[in-house]
Design goal:
The longest helix has about 60 residues. About 85% of the residues lie in helices and about 0% in strands. The protein contains seven helices and no strands. The chain folds into two domains: about 90 residues, Rna Polymerase Sigma Factor, Chain: A; about 55 residues, Arc Repressor Mutant, subunit A, CATH 1.10.10. Helix 2 packs across helix 3 and helix 2 packs across helix 4. InterPro entries: RNA_pol_sigma-70-like, RNA_pol_sigma-70_dom, RNA_pol_sigma70_r2, RNA_pol_sigma70_r4_t2, RNA_pol_sigma_r2, RNA_pol_sigma_r3/r4-like, WH-like_DNA-bd_sf. Keywords: Sigma factor, Transcription, Transcription regulation. Belongs to the sigma-70 factor family. ECF subfamily.
Length: about 190
């Protein structure tokens, strides 16, 4: 009986791998796992993550096993997919600090929103207080008590047309005041 060369054994295992035989996967895993981990570790300098990426690469290769015609095809795909995943991991790792900063900024903004809302509400309320009496009453009923035009007209014993006119007058008086306040805060 003629001795089997290492390359013949690998090709036989690659054939078993393509046919979905676990023995083929086991042989190739034992032959290429350590070199694959070393290759990935040389790219990302993280041995634990390198092992995870290598294992995932074997699983992805198993999924597409019918596409391969030789052991070299399998090996090339395995190392290519591992390199791609290593680069993805590196990119995600580089984005992580920015993501943490964004999360911190979002948290800070969320904490500030009630204060900002209260400051805006107070500013608008103070501006409304400077309106002429009837105009102020219309605004308070429309915007603070959330009544509609007919309800305001009924409450103040005026016509809906007068309510609309007072609302328009109030808006025209408030707009410049609120814009000037906003410009001062910039």
């Amino acid at each position: 009986m003629k001795p089997v060369s290492l390359q013949q054994e690998i090709e036989r295992s690659a054939s078993a791998f393509r046919q979905g035989m676990p023995a083929g996967m086991t042989y190739l895993f034992n032959a290429w796992y350590v070199p694959l981990c070393q290759y990935i570790c040389s790219l990302i300098n993280d041995p634990v993550t390198a092992e995870e990426i290598a294992s995932e690469a074997f699983l992805k290769t198993w999924k597409y096993r019918l596409q391969f015609h030789s052991s070299e095809d399998i090996r090339a795909y395995l190392f290519t997919i591992a390199r791609r995943d290593a680069f993805k991991w590196t990119q995600q790792k580089q984005k992580a600090p920015r993501l943490e900063t964004l999360q911190e900024l979002t948290a800070a903004t969320t904490e500030l929103l009630p204060m900002i809302h209260e400051e805006i509400r107070t500013t608008i309320h103070n501006a409304i207080q400077t309106l002429p009496n009837r105009c102020r009453q219309v605004f308070e009923l429309l915007y603070i008590e959330d009544k509609n035009i007919d309800e305001v007209a009924s409450s103040l014993l005026i016509s809906p047309y007068t309510v609309r006119a007072q609302k328009a007058r109030g808006l025209s008086l408030l707009r410049p005041k609120l814009l000037s306040i906003l410009e001062k805060k910039k």
